[in-house]
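tmp note - HAD-IIIC family phosphatase
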Amino acid sequence: MIKCLIWDLDDTLWQGTLSENGEVKLRPGIREVLRTLDHRGILQSIASRNDPDQASQKLAELGIDHFFLYPQFGWGSKTDSIRKIAQEMNINTDALAFIDDNPYERYEVSTYLPEVNVYEADDTAELPELPEFQFVISEESSKRRQQMMSRWVRNTFRKESTSISDK
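out:
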């Protein structure tokens, strides 16, 4: 059972490469896939080699930034990004899925995290129909992202309060 789907951005979530000219558009059907998975309680995140400010701005511009928790942007390994997302969400890696257009990235994740389900970008539209993405939808599952966001805000506030009181 998949608890979190981790998206690559360029040529996976959207068509085009953000760093080349900033002109990207969502792949067909992406909004519906994001909504469907979110409604089922499947969390979503990002592992991308993009500038964090530019990517965050584009996600907001496209009106989909709210779907993604603990996104990881940077030039390091996607495997490391996936591990960090799992740690931040407190989810075992065997409950993660990763989708990317790049065969090397998929190979790397499959090799170093063989328990993670890995998908090609061309499989995007079919993801909600796959058995591992099927859930009995409940009131609780449909609010899982909001609950995770609340937890993140509480933890961030505690960390900030602790660091202020230590001074």
